[in-house]
Design brief:
The complex is a heterodimer of chains A (363) and B (284).
Chain A lengths: L2 H10 L10 H7 L6 H14 L3 H23 L7 H18 L4 H23 L4 H21 L1 H4 L5 E2 L6 E3 L2 E4 L4 H24 L1 H11 L1 H6 L4 H27 L1 E2 L6 H14 L4 H21 L4 H14 L3 H14 L23
Helix pairs in contact in A: 1-10, 3-9, 4-9, 4-12, 4-13, 4-14, 5-6, 5-12, 5-13, 6-12, 9-10, 10-12, 13-14, 13-16, 14-16
Chain B lengths: L1 H30 L6 H19 L2 H22 L9 H23 L15 E4 L2 E4 H23 L1 H11 L1 H6 L4 H27 L5 H16 L4 H21 L4 H15 L9
Antiparallel strand pairs in B: 1-2
Classes of the chains: A mainly alpha (363), B mainly alpha (284).
Chain lengths: 363, 284
């Protein structure tokens, strides 16, 4: 069944109450099934296997931003070179909220999420007025706009120096102190819980009728519009969701570093997020975790000994387009298929959709 | 007087933007290929200008030799890599050229260092031209005249020569041109080299005014995108008028609100997109 068929089926499925989901199918493919337990196990292993839990936290933060980019690129077919707008805005706004308004942890993160969604809806509303390459070029131009705004408002953002001494408030809920996040491990646990929630939420969004429609837009926007979908609104909504998650990642990053540098909102950050998404594999949520992990670990290993290691990222991008269009996760999948001998669970349209939409709609 | 000064500055800047965007547009028109490494090649033009001027002590040699070197590198990239990916969707064009831009930028830092450089205004064009009570830097005047000449030559090349005819015919249907017996691979490679060479030329010409630094690629790319979003991809006139508009806006704003001059470029784009979503000269 092609993607448009999925969208149509997803729309009609609720009208067949007789086909209720049984418990085992739900466990296999529901929000807590599929790859989610594996991801949870990985989250427990990561701080042990990696040199430091700070590094593990950094991986999860970038994996969040990559998930959000993947939602747009892998499922909506929307290549955005503007993700740093939301990453940077989340970092600045949550930091300003804690520094000047004395906001607690959760209100500051919430402020980042809400403002990221609003900002992304605005950028999206302008950018989706054009499609194709014009759309991509506009996201890039808007990233430059955001950069110059942040640079100009140096009273608020610290300009070139960045915002210094960003606090990491303790976790409190309704005035009750729950946890002090000042140690690297406790902050990792907090980030890991948020990451798991985001992972489940994005999975849920992709499996929903909204997600199926988004894929229909990716496959053939004219056809989706002809079927009666307001594709522009779908794209703007996808942008808002992506912006909210990216902004959350930016806020968490500022609290991790106790610092919100201007680099957060630079075009190169957008490029890095896109590169992590593509290297990991577009259209696969596990690929996003893999891409962010590979990027953070390699940059950490090489940045010390060879500051110009980004040449390798450029080369990796070219090689992936030439030889491994499914990214690292696509490579892992085809290896697994070769060894297990079967390809039954592979998505029919040739996309590496393991964690993505299942071939059968679930709703 | 101040405004006349800024209008002239804006024209010079606008013609530089026109050269960059025209290169982007010619490539897109014929090859249906989006070159995200365009800004990086512009930067390379500036650095070659610096090195050749240091080496020979003569700006004119670097103006003659630099852009062809950039064009040759582009030709080599087309022949070895880019022609393999034309058939893929635009997303993959973008990813590959972003990769090329990263490699160029990092290599530039390895060769020339991370700190920016300035290039002296060439001999013979250093002073000012005075007309009644108005004085204007000679090099900037030369820039306007020279880029206009290049613009005219480009128009002649595209509209009046056999090569230009093939490029325009290929933009309509490259398959048909190939079927009529033209070596389309060679045409594609030459057009790519020409378009990127224009970016290299723009980089060379602007180096004595604005200096060079390794991170100027993305900045220039962003501006070139604004120009083609305003003027329309594949349109020579659109690139000219869009480039001049952006140059004038940036130059005039820098007297009114210096910090916001760069910002206003993007504000112009947002305004155009809101009022005319398909650009000033675009059709749906």
């Amino acid at each position: 069944m092609n993607a448009t068929g999925q969208a149509r089926a997803a729309r009609h499925a609720p009208e067949n109450p007789g086909q209720g989901r049984d418990v085992f199918a739900y466990l296999r493919s529901g929000p807590f099934g599929g790859p989610t337990p594996a991801v949870a196990a990985l989250l427990v292993l990561m701080p042990v296997a990696l040199p430091s839990s700070t590094m593990a936290t950094e991986i999860l933060i970038f994996a969040m931003a990559t998930l959000a980019c993947n939602l747009l690129l892998g499922y909506g077919g929307l290549l955005s070179f503007g993700q740093a707008i939301f990453f940077g805005a989340g970092a600045y706004l949550s930091s300003l909220a804690t520094m000047h308004l004395g906001a607690g942890l959760l209100p500051a993160l919430l402020a980042a999420v809400v403002s990221g969604a609003i900002l992304a809806a605005l950028v999206g509303a302008l950018a989706v007025r054009r499609t194709g390459i014009y759309f991509v070029m506009m996201t890039l131009a808007f990233n430059q706009t955001a950069y110059f705004i942040a640079y100009t408002l140096s009273d608020w953002t610290g300009g070139d120096n960045g915002l210094l001494d960003v606090p990491r408030p303790p976790l409190t809920l309704f005035g009750a102190a729950l946890a002090d996040l000042s140690t690297a491990t406790s902050y990792y646990v907090f980030t890991a819980v948020l990451f798991l929630l985001v992972f489940i939420a994005v999975r849920r969004v992709i499996a929903s009728p909204f997600g199926s429609t988004l894929i229909a837009v990716r496959e053939n926007e004219d056809r989706a519009r002809a079927l009666g979908y307001d594709t522009r609104n779908f794209k703007i909504t996808a942008f808002a969701l992506s912006g909210a998650v990216t902004s959350l990642a930016g806020a968490l990053y500022a609290m991790l570093l106790n610092f919100a540098p201007l680099e957060n909102i630079q075009l190169s950050m957008s490029e890095n997020i896109v590169i992590m998404t593509v290297i990991g594999g577009t259209g696969s949520l596990l690929g996003s975790l893999l891409g962010a992990g590979a990027w953070v670990i390699i940059s950490d290993m090489l940045a010390e000994i060879w500051p110009r290691w980004q040449i390798l990222t450029g080369g990796a991008l070219i090689l992936i387009v030439l030889f491994l269009r499914g990214g690292l996760w696509g490579g892992v999948e085809s290896l697994m298929r070769r060894f297990s001998g079967g390809g039954a669970h592979h998505a029919p349209d040739g996309n590496p959709d393991d964690a993505g939409p299942p071939p059968q709609p679930m709703e | 007087m101040l405004y006349l000064f800024q209008v002239l500055n804006g024209l010079g800047l606008g013609m530089i933007y026109f050269l960059i965007s025209a290169g982007l547009t010619i490539i897109f028109g014929l090859l249906n290929f989006v070159n995200f490494a365009h800004g990086a090649f512009f930067m390379l033009g500036g650095y070659l200008c610096w090195s050749l001027t240091e080496l020979t002590g003569n700006f004119w040699i670097s103006l003659l030799a630099g852009p062809p070197v950039v064009a040759f590198l582009a030709w080599a990239a087309e022949v070895t890599l880019i022609r393999r990916i034309y058939r893929l969707p635009h997303t993959f064009h973008i990813l590959v050229t972003v990769g090329i831009a990263l490699i160029l930028q990092e290599t530039t830092i390895m060769i020339w260092g991370p700190i920016g450089k300035s290039i002296p205004v060439p001999d013979g064009l250093q002073g000012f031209v005075t007309l009644w009570s108005f004085t204007y830097p000679t090099y900037r005047l030369f820039l306007i005249a020279f880029t206009s000449l290049i613009g005219f030559a480009l128009w002649y090349l595209l509209e009046r020569t056999r090569f230009g005819g093939l490029v325009r015919a290929g933009s309509e249907s490259s398959e048909m041109v190939a079927l009529l017996g033209t070596n389309i691979h060679r045409l594609f490679a030459r057009t790519f080299a020409l378009g990127v060479g224009l970016a290299g030329l723009a980089g060379t010409l602007s180096a004595p005014i604005r200096g060079i630094h390794p991170f100027m690629g993305p900045e220039v790319l962003g501006i070139a995108f604004v120009v083609v979003v305003i003027g329309g991809m594949g349109s020579f006139t659109g690139a000219l008028l869009g480039g001049l508009l952006v140059g004038l806006v940036q130059s005039l704003m820098s007297t009114i609100w210096p910090e916001g001059a760069s910002l206003m470029i993007y504000g112009t784009m947002a305004a155009v997109i809101l009022l005319r979503p398909y650009g000033l000269f675009g059709r749906a």
